[in-house]
Design brief:
It contains five helices and two strands. A two-stranded antiparallel sheet has the order 1-2. With about 90 residues, it is mostly helical. It starts with a helix and ends in a 10-residue tail after the last helix. It has one domain.
């Protein structure tokens, strides 16, 4: 099992940021996060280590397409954090 120190280390956050960045290149949220990436990752690390962590609200948008629908997506900042899984009961 991974300890919280390892999970929320700057190295782990950096790796997750780089993985997330591959799929979200050139989105407005990704570009805004990247302007000051080190400070943003350090702020995220501090928030994750001091409970309670409250993720940013999801983004709401209406995609173009033949069928109108609502869509929700997690903010880039939320995607850049490591994913923790709950233990099965």
């Amino acid at each position: 099992m991974t300890s919280p120190e390892e999970l929320y280390s700057f190295r782990a956050l950096w790796r997750q940021y780089r993985a997330c960045r591959r799929n979200k290149r050139s989105t407005l949220n990704q570009l805004a996060f990247e302007v000051d990436v080190e400070a943003n990752l350090l702020r995220l690390q501090e928030e994750l280590r001091s409970p309670p962590y409250r993720p940013d609200p999801p983004l709401y948008f209406l995609p173009d397409g033949p069928k109108p629908r609502e869509a929700f997506a997690a903010a880039f900042r939320r995607r850049a954090r490591p994913v923790t899984r709950r233990r099965p009961r």
